[in-house]
Amino acid sequence: MGGTGGTGATGGTGGTSSGDDGPPRTQDAGAVGNCLGSCVAMFFAPCDRVGESCVKASGTTSSTTCYANGVKVAASQSGTTITSTYYAPGGQECYQTIKQGLTQEDIQSPTGTELARIMFDETQAQLTITCYPDGPTNPAQTTTADLSAPNCAAYAAGIGETCTPGTCSL
Hints:
single chain, 10-stranded mixed beta sheet, mainly beta
């Protein structure tokens, strides 16, 4: 169950933002920011996994993925909904994604605050990203991303990631 919500930002520079919970968020644009925008990248940055090798332990409706840099992802599936929780190398929860089928992914803080929504248009290989940098009650930032564009190559590669089957636990 590789996927959209799992990629994080690498490279770049910037300040930090303390969210309502989770590890400190950076303003780092990096690989994800260059594709999805810096607003989403700031939520993904503490659990960066772009380009990292991984090992995945899978069950019938759940899996745990461990990345070489220490990031871990616990995922469970119910029908067409996949819920994944992303953990920083120190074990602190970064964020959670809830994928509704193949077209919608919601990103939430560890306490359940909606941070962003990503909608995928398969016919155009395009994403529409609505980000709530200051919470869902404040004005949202909406951007689009073309997955075939060079600036989205790292993000797009993470969508179809293949991990080595093996032992992995939180």
